[in-house]
Amino acid sequence: MDSSPKLICPEVPCIVQVQPAKNPGSKGRIIKNAKINLGRNQFRDVILLITSQNSEVCSFTLNAVKVHKNFIHEGKATILLINESLMISNAPPRSLQLFVKTLTFKVALQAKKTPIASRCRLLATKLNLTEEISPLTSKDIAALSNKVGTETTPTRKKGQPLKQLNTQENCNRIEAIKKRRLEMNNGGMSPQSQARASLKRFLSPHQLTEEQKNVLTIVLSGKSIFFTGSAGTGKSYLLRRIVGSLPPDATFVTASTGIAACHIDGTTLHSFAGIGSGKATLEQCLELARRPTLIKQWKSVKHLIIDEVSMVDGDFFEKLEVVARKTRDTDLPFGGIQLILCGDFLQLPPVVRRGETRRYAFQTAAWENSVSKIVELKQVHRQADKEFIKILSQIRSGRCSSESAARLKSTAKQTIEKDGIIPTILCTHTDDVEHINMRSLDKLPGTPTVFKAVDSDPYLTKQLDQLTSVPSTLCLKIGSQIMLMKNLDISRGLVNGARGVIVGFEKGGIIVNFACGVKENIFRERYVVKCSNTLVTRTQLPIRLAWAFSIHKSQGMTLDCVEVTLGRAFEAGQAYVALSRAKSLNSLRVLDFSTECVRADAVVLAFYRDIFQDFY
Ligand SMILES: Nc1ncnc2c1ncn2[C@@H]1O[C@H](COP(=O)(O)OP(=O)(O)OP(=O)(O)O)[C@@H](O)[C@H]1O
Ligand SMILES: [Mg+2]
C-alpha cells in the first residue's frame, strides 16, 4: 500500500460568479450554495465542476488557466479561463487552498503530456466526465521536475478591478513574476524546488493529531463544543485550522483579549458583540446590539469562535446569549449559533474589579444550555522535555512537589543569553513592564528612532492599542530587545513571540538578529481589525519592546527565552501561564520561586474533575 502523503482535493462549498471573458464588466451568473470539484473527461483533461443547489452541474475544461489567489485566506480566488472567469467567494479558506493547489499542479502535470490531437477531440461528440481527480502525491511532485506550475499571483492592489488580460500581456506578466520569484530566491532555490517545497509543505505540514482531528470532526458536524487542555496542547493551532475549514461570511473569530485575538487573526469578543463592556442593563445592551450594522452581523453569524474563553466574564457570556436569541428572533440556545470555545480555565481567569465576585463562563446557564460537547486535548506540543511537562502539569493543578520546586529554582543561575538576546522578564504587574522597558532603553547609547503607527482612523488609536498587538509609538535603538508580534515566515522561525535584538536601521524599517539564528529586515505590516463593526487598519512594525512583558499579555504565546519573577503573583493560574510559555527548562530562568505563588482555583478544579473522570 502506498503510504506516502497524499493531498485529497476537497469538494469546496462556495459562491461562484461566472463572468464571460469578453465582457468582464458584466455581472455574469452567480451560483450561490455551489460546490466546486475537480474531475477528468475522456481526454484526461482536468475539469472543474460546479454543482448548484438544485444539483445542476456545469463543467469547465482547465487547459489554460490562471489563478489569482491574493485573497485566498479570505476564502476568495479567481480562476481565469480562456472564455470566462470564475470568481469564487465564501469558501472555507483551507479547503480552497487545497483545491487551488491540486488544480494548479494537476494542470501543470497535464501540460507536460502530449496533447490529444484536435481531430480526435473533434470526432468526439460529447464531453464526458469519466473520473474524479486523483489525490496529489509526492510522485506528482517528482514528475514536475521542470515545470513551475501555471499559477500566478500578479500583485493587484485592493480595490483595483480585475482586468482580463490579452495573451501578450499574460506572457509578459508571467515572465515578470517568474523573474521576481527568481530574484527573491537569492540564487538559493530553483523554481522547480520552490514548487516542490511549496507542495511538500502542503503534503506534510504539521498534521493534526488524532485528538485534534476528532475536535475538527465535531466542529464540522455543527455541534457546539468547548475544547480544553493544558498550555501548549495546540488549542489555538487547531482553532486556526478550524477557521480555515468554515465559510468566512458566517464565521466570527474572537478571543477574550486583544493579544489572544491577534494570534488567531480575529477580533475581541467585546468588539464583535457591540454591547460595550456588557455592564449596562440587558435592555441597554439589546439596544446597542440592534443598531443596523450590528443586527445584520448578529443575524449572519453561524459559527462563533472564542479563544481564551477562561478570561470571558460569566455575566458577559450570559448577556451575550440573551442578545444572540433576541437579535436573531429565536428561542434556541445562543440563538442557534454554533459555539466553538477553546481555552484552559486553569490559566488566567476573568479580570474582576476589587470586591466583585468572579464568575466563569462555565458557571452560567447559558453555557449549560449551549455547549453540548467538551473535549480535552492531552498531547503537549510546546514542550518536548518530559520532566518539564510533568512539573508544569503539577503547577497547573495548583501543586508543586519539593523536587519540582528545587528544579525550577535551579534554573535561576543558568545563562540563557545568546547572541546578544537576553531573556524577556515576565512580570505579574504592568507597571513593572513599562518601567523595565523604559529604563533599559534609556541605558542604551544614542537617541531613539521613533516609529509612529499609521492608523486609518486616528480617533480610534486607543481601540487599536487594544485590538492589535503593536503599540502606536515605538521608540527603538540599536541593542533594543524586541519580540515579533506576527507570523512572518513560520518555516524560518519568524513567528509570533520570536525574540530578537535590533542590530541596525534600514529606511523605514529595522534589522533584527533573531534567537532562531535568522537576520531579517523588518518593515511595517498592516493590521486589519474590526472596530465598531467597521474595518480599521494600523500600519506599524510588527514588534514590541521585550526586555519585559506582562504575564497577562503573554497568555497564549510560545516564547524563545524567558525569565519569570513570581514574588508578586496575585492570581490563580498566573505562575502556570508564565512558566508554560517556555519551550524547555533550558530556555527558562525562574527567580524568587516559592510554592506559595502556585495556585489553582478550586472552582475550576471541581469543574474539570466533574467533566473529566481521569483529571489529576
Ligand atoms: N499537531 C501539531 N503538530 C505540531 N506542532 C503543533 C501541533 N499543534 C500545535 N503545535 C505547536 O505547539 C505550540 C503550542 O500550540 P498552541 O499555542 O496552539 O497551544 P495552546 O494549547 O493554544 O496553548 P495556550 O494554552 O498556551 O494558549 C505551537 O508552536 C504550535 O505550532
Ligand atoms: Mg492558545
Automatic annotation (TrEMBL):
Localisation: Nucleus; Mitochondrion
Coiled coil: none
EC supergroup of this enzyme: isomerase
Catalytic activities: ATP + H2O = ADP + phosphate + H(+)
Gene3D superfamilies according to UniProt: P-loop containing nucleotide triphosphate hydrolases
Pfam families: PH_LRR1, PIF1, Pif1_2B_dom
Molecular functions per Gene Ontology: 5'-3' DNA helicase activity; ATP binding; DNA binding; hydrolase activity
Keyword Cell inner membrane included in the entry's annotation: no
Cofactor(s) required, per the database record: Mg(2+)
DNA-binding region coordinates: 574-593
Family that this chain belongs to: Belongs to the helicase family. PIF1 subfamily.
Function: DNA-dependent ATPase and 5'-3' DNA helicase required for the maintenance of both mitochondrial and nuclear genome stability.
The protein's name: ATP-dependent DNA helicase PIF1
